[in-house]
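Let us work through a complete example step by step.
Step 1: write down the sequence.
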Amino acid sequence: MGNTIGSIENGVFIYKDTSSSLAEKKYIRFEKEDLPQYIDKFTDLVGEGILLEGCLFEDHKWIAYGNKSYKTFDFTIMEYNQQIYLPLKCFVILQLYDKRLV
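Step 2: predict the structure and record it as tokens.
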């Protein structure tokens, strides 16, 4: 059983109740003109120490620090596929910034 809230134009939020757990599915539309906002969030993540100091948005590899470990995000394989390269980097930024997932 589930509820759908919102619309496809604004993003669809789906909440499902499965064995007393709640899941959220969110569709995000990447717009290239929003890139400066993503870069600002990236800069904030570096400033907060979540991303390695010295990391640049343009880098193909980012290192993120969590409570007990670190993760490397390697975008090298996709650098020539611009249709997925920038949207994927921006998706990772949103996950790190909004949810602090590392």
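Step 3: interpret the result. The chain is about 30% helix and 30% strand.
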